[in-house]
Design a protein that fits this description.
It is a single chain. This protein is of the alpha/beta class. It has one domain. 32% of the residues lie in helices and 19% in strands. Strands 1-2-3-8-9-10-11 form a 7-stranded mixed sheet. The protein has a two-stranded antiparallel sheet with strand order 4-5. Helix 1 runs antiparallel to helix 2 and helix 2 crosses helix 4. The N and C termini lie far apart (65 Å). The relative contact order is 0.11.
């Protein structure tokens, strides 16, 4: 087939011009989102724009991502920016993600298996304003269950993206053939919008762990509850101590929400949760809160220490007990084991 060379060159130039114009608009957006002349603000602006430029050049964002990044909607902006942060982390780790549409956000190949990563950034729905906007240094209640409910909702949403929802007539990636039954599927949850202290002002702090001191992703999938001490009422002596079993969470309205996803064999298509709390500082490639929680029932398990993470968690089940174990991640310098 003959190709009109001048026409191809014209199309290439137009695309280059469009990308340059888009990047200029994105640079202005980042300057507005990270204002000021503080050295940290300047450093963030430079690093965030460089990450965006790198991820765009690699073709790792969908067609609507730039509109979301340059738009006024905070939820859409942070959803797209989370994809940038995670793509940047994958590239920095030496992995080679690709993107295809339609499909999950990122595709990786490892050991003859396809690994899909689907990203979600839960909005701070029903999170108390006192938590989200409190002044650093002041006392405020930790809204443990409202935050955890946002994690369970995010995981449920992306699980349905894969498995579908027959009651609503929705087919998922599996039914449509986009994701094969032999593929590894990972849900990546970025909890940065659930931070306390007003993340939008640049002074929020990560809230990666729940009331159990395990990552929220562990609480949301492995039914791990608060640490509890059982005391004999008559002798007042301690009988036992350990993390409580919490398979369900009460909602203010409606039915209880399951927090035992990884105890349910029907969720076998979900290989793992990649839990992160990444903000602008992530683009500096320093240590950030990141963990991988593995599904013990996964049909296609994710290899340990494959994704960037400080720790990885596995759930070991026996006839009369369960143990949540923490392993050294690929980004960690220490190894420890925690048994529930």
């Amino acid at each position: 087939m003959l190709v009109n060379a001048p026409r191809c060159e014209l199309i290439k130039r137009r695309r280059t011009l469009l990308l340059a114009t888009t990047l200029e608009a994105l640079k202005e957006t980042i300057s507005q989102r990270i204002p000021g002349e503080h050295p940290t603000a300047k450093m963030w602006r430079s690093a965030v724009f460089a990450a965006c430029e790198k991820v765009l050049a690699a073709g790792l964002l969908d067609r609507g991502a730039l509109a979301r990044l340059n738009g006024p909607d905070d939820g859409l902006f942070w959803g797209a920016m989370s994809e940038v942060f995670l793509a940047d982390r994958l590239l920095h780790a030496g992995l080679q993600p690709t993107h295809q549409e339609p499909g999950p956000d990122f595709r990786l190949e490892h050991g003859g298996k396809t690994i899909w990563v689907e990203v979600i950034t839960p909005l701070p729905t029903n999170i108390p304003v006192e938590w989200l906007e409190h002044t650093p240094g002041s006392a405020v209640d930790f809204p443990a269950e409202p935050i955890l409910l946002r994690w369970t909702a995010a995981i449920k949403e992306k699980a349905e993206k894969l498995r579908g929802n027959p009651s609503q007539g929705k087919a998922g990636y599996l039914a449509s053939g986009i994701v094969s039954e032999d593929d590894i599927y990972v849900i990546a949850v970025n909890g940065l919008l659930l931070r306390g202290g007003g993340f939008g002002k640049g002074d929020g702090f990560p809230q990666f762990e729940g009331i159990s001191q395990f990552p929220l992703a562990v609480e949301a999938t492995c039914s791990v509850g608060p640490y509890a001490i059982k005391i004999n009422r008559l002798t007042l002596e301690q009988v036992s101590a350990g993390h409580s079993h919490r398979p369900r969470l009460a909602r203010p309205k409606g039915a209880d929400v399951p927090a035992d996803t990884f105890h349910d064999p029907s969720f076998a298509p979900i290989s793992a949760i990649w839990a992160v709390d990444l903000g602008y500082g992530s683009t500096l490639h320093k240590s950030e809160p990141m963990a991988v929680v593995h599904n013990p029932h996964a049909k296609n398990p994710l290899p340990l220490r494959y994704l960037p993470a400080i720790n990885e968690y596995t759930l070991e089940l026996t006839a009369d007990e369960m143990a949540v174990k923490s392993h050294q991640g690929r980004d960690s310098k220490q190894s420890r084991i925690i048994v529930q």
